[in-house]
Amino acid sequence: MRRVLHSDRPLSLRHTLSPHRRGRSDPTHRTLPDGSIWRTSLFASGAVTYRLRQPSRTEVVADVWGDGAEEFVDTLPGLVGMLDDATGFAPEHRILVEAARRLTHLHLGRTGQVFEALVPAVLEQKVHGVAAFASWRRLVTRFGAPAPGPAPSGMAVSPPPDVWRRVPSWEFHRANVDPKRARTIVEAARVADKLTPIVGMTHDDAYRRLRLVPGIGEWTAAEVCQRALGDADALSVGDYHLAAVIGWSLVGAPMTDDEMVAYLEPLRPHRYRAVRLLEVSGMAVRPKFGPRTPITDHRFH
């Protein structure tokens, strides 16, 4: 199945979809040298592989394979950022003003796939990204299904909640996932059908629903809402570096989480949009934080 979308404003597939990529070897996401982006997903009607290309700044071509193709096509405008609404975003800081002026093609996409965004977010809790990405790759490759269609070698579809719920504890252990994160994934899988409705909820209600799952806090809820809902206000409070980066970038000194929340309050409901503009523009200041803490390997204890 092929669909061609024409937008009335510039788009950037690379920037819009980059938050969904979990490391260079993510089995659900590949970017090829020709610029095409391949992804997999699992819908109620079945799995899909899709390839997205951007012939021009306002055109997106999607080729889709798999039983869930028709269902996926309905989500395509939201995925590529065509439904993103920046109304009311009026930053005053010169850096954010300049970033918004330069990056008119940066939009926030939404997958509508809550559980698919939740599992990798849980894996990234309080660990180095490289370790979380390795865990995600191992578990999806081990328990997922082969990508339908002519997908690049090694691509796979993330397992459904019922499979995640039955992943043995020793398999999480082999994937370097500690018992707490493993329990959170299993608990979320048990109530996955109750999490899906957050795509139609307000920001606050979606957060409350997600945080009913033991092990999901404010940071994880924000990471899920950013990707699944395209929530422009989902600020990742509790991130290891974010408050310091915001502080150094906008006021020239590090901030605590509370200080960051207070400083960005005037930008509601677009706090995450401001963060993405800083990230993509290259204007974020990222001071050296000293020696990196060692990567914890849970497989040997």
From TrEMBL:
Using the UniProt record, name the top-level EC class of this enzyme in a single word. hydrolase
Q: Where is this region: Disordered?
A: 1-33
Identify the EC number(s): 3.2.2.21
InterPro entries for the chain: Alkylbase_DNA_Glycosylase/TA, DNA_glycosylase, HhH-GPD_domain
- Which domain of life does this protein belong to? Bacteria
Q: Which residues cross the membrane?
A: none
Query: Which SUPFAM superfamilies is this protein grouped with?
Result: DNA-glycosylase (SSF48150)
Compositional bias, Basic and acidic residues, is annotated for 1-11
Keywords associated with the record: DNA damage, DNA repair
Name of the protein: DNA-3-methyladenine glycosylase II
Q: Which organism is it from?
A: Rhodococcoides corynebacterioides
